[in-house]
Backbone:
C-alpha cells in the first residue's frame, strides 16, 4: 500500500521573557527531547556576548544544565555553520537549530529562521523580548513575527518580598534604576557583567523603574 502523503509542518518556536525566567532551561528541555532520539541532528548556537558569563561554546542554564554550542556573532556566521554542518541537506533525520541569547544577533536571524523552516529545519529561539527600558529587542521582535509558536515565560519579582510575576528586566547602576537612555544595552548579570556595579534583575510592572521613560497614555 502506498504511504499516505502526510503534510508536514516545520515549527519556529520563540521562547522569550525577562531575565531569570528560565528561558535557557526551557531551550535545553527542547534539546533534551531531541537527544532522546539519538539520530536527530541538532546544532546549537549562542552569542559571543554571553561568553563572559558562561565561557565559550557552551549554553548553560542558571540551574546548571549545559549543552555544547557554537559561540558566534552574526546571522551570516550561523548560516555558514549550518552549511558546514550539512544541516540544510535532508538526511532522513530530524534537523534542529537551537539559538540561545538570540537577542544579541542581528535582525537577519529572522530571515535565517524562515529559510530553515523552508528547508525543514526545526528552529528554537531563546532570548529577551524587551530591553531593560521596555523597548523591544529588534531581533526578538523580528523572530516573534515569524514564529509559529511563542512561549512567553515569566520570572519572580525580586523586589523585597513581592509575590508578583516579573515580566520586565530592571537595570540597576549602583543599586539605582538605570535611566531610559542609558547607553549600555548589553545584558549580563552581576556575575558576568563587564561594567562594575551594573546589575540586572527581574521585576513586575509595578516595581520596574525607568527614569526618563517617555510617558504616553497617562491615565492622570
Ligand atoms: Zn514586584
Residues:
Amino acid at each position: 500500500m502506498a504511504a499516505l502523503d502526510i503534510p508536514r509542518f516545520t515549527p519556529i518556536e520563540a521562547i522569550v521573557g525577562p531575565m531569570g525566567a528560565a528561558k535557557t532551561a526551557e531551550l535545553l528541555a527542547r534539546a533534551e527531547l531531541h537527544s532522546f532520539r539519538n539520530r536527530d541532528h541538532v546544532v546549537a548556537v549562542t552569542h559571543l556576548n554571553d561568553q563572559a558569563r558562561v565561557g565559550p561554546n557552551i549554553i548553560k542554564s542558571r540551574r546548571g544544565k549545559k549543552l555544547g554550542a557554537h559561540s558566534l556573532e552574526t546571522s551570516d556566521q550561523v548560516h555558514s555553520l549550518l552549511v558546514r554542518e550539512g544541516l540544510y541537506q535532508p538526511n532522513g533525520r530530524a534537523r534542529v537549530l537551537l539559538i540561545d541569547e538570540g537577542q544579541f544577533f542581528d535582525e537577519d536571524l529572522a530571515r535565517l529562521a524562515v529559510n530553515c523552516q523552508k528547508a525543514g529545519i526545526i528552529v528554537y529561539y531563546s532570548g529577551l523580548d524587551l530591553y531593560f527600558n521596555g523597548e523591544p529587542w529588534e531581533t526578538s521582535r523580528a523572530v516573534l513575527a515569524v514564529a509559529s509558536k511563542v512561549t512567553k515565560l515569566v520570572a519572580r519579582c525580586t523586589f523585597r518580598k513581592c509575590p508578583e510575576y516579573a515580566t520586565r528586566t530592571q537595570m540597576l547602576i549602583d543599586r539605582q534604576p538605570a535611566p531610559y537612555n542609558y547607553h549600555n544595552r548589553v545584558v549580563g548579570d552581576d556575575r558576568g557583567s563587564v561594567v562594575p556595579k551594573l546589575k540586572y534583575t527581574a521585576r513586575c510592572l509595578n516595581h520596574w523603574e525607568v527614569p526618563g521613560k517617555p510617558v504616553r497614555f497617562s491615565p492622570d
About this structure: The radius of gyration is 19 Å. Helices lie at 23-36, 51-54, 75-85, 109-118, 138-146. The longest strand covers residues 121-128.
